[in-house]
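STRUCTURE REQUEST FORM
Protein name: Metalloprotease
Source organism: Fibrisoma montanum
Requested output: structure tokens
Priority: standard
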Amino acid sequence: MKNLRLLMAVTACSLLLLAACEEEIDGPVYNPNPDLAEVDSTTCVDPPLRKWLFDQYKYGFGSLPLTVIATNPELSMDALPLNHAVYFENSAVNQSFGLKGEYTNQLNNSFKDLKRFWGIQPDNIIMVAAHGSVLQDRNKVFKTYKAMGYPDEKANDYTDSIATLLKTYPQYLNGDHPAFTINQYAVPDTTFAGVGQSPAKIVIGDGNLKGFEGIGYRDFAPQAILAHEVGHHLQYDLGILKPGMKLIPKTARRVELMANAYAAYYLSHAREAALQGKSVQQVSDLLSNTGDCSFKGSSHHGTPSQNKAAAEWGYNLGKDAQKQGHILSSREFARLFDAELPNIIKK
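Status: completed
Returned output:
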């Protein structure tokens, strides 16, 4: 989903080579950063996932001020659990996904299959969880504020504020409310200032899984959102994304639509029982939920209809490839996607 603000603080990075991403010897040179059309405002309706989250605010918090969570950039209460995972969750061992670990096996199996599909070495990327329960741990909250660049005094004050809020408002569910973890990140192999080395990883928040479950996609949303984030790692390897890269609306839209197309392409091939028989309509409807109407936002994901179109294109390309017995490399796929992008953004 949205790109990490914290990646602006990256001091060094070593990208991983993915076996399936090497340049084809006889193929044309791929331009990872082509000229792009500007983002224009158009008719746009928020997707079901965003409406679901707004309902959680409305019915879960009642009269509580939403600014405490959603719009307080200093407190960053809705970013702490995911940022903690980015900085400090550096091992795939004993990770659990979902509030009760209910998605753990599903995601672990899918991650293995995705690595096989794209030719990624097993240990090159890890997958970790972001749990809202981190907010209950004073030491973890303080460490995360420090990693985010807060001075000691402010980090201490805000850590105390988090503890007070959790005690004062039971509606926060001790951090388990989905508002605190409704996101997912793809993070390259990075050295964070003041923290140290962090391996390439995918972070999946419990709230994101809960949200897709809430709108009816429990059976295959985990695979889809994981495939989307793997798509971003393919982009890092191809040079489409770079650590610390400052995105603008048109570049953010391109990488997010492409990640959805990568995901749909994979889903059209996936062998898992939960994915068998899924139609292009079901896959594209699910992935349309990554869209937004923030046309001027630096993390604009494209509209829901554009995300739906990108997913339809990727899924249908996958079905055609299956008939030919061929799986495209990530570079071939990106080249084809960029050629189709002008048509996708017209949707």
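Reviewer notes: Residues 5-16+39-344 form one domain. DSSP finds eleven helices and six strands in the chain.
Form closed.
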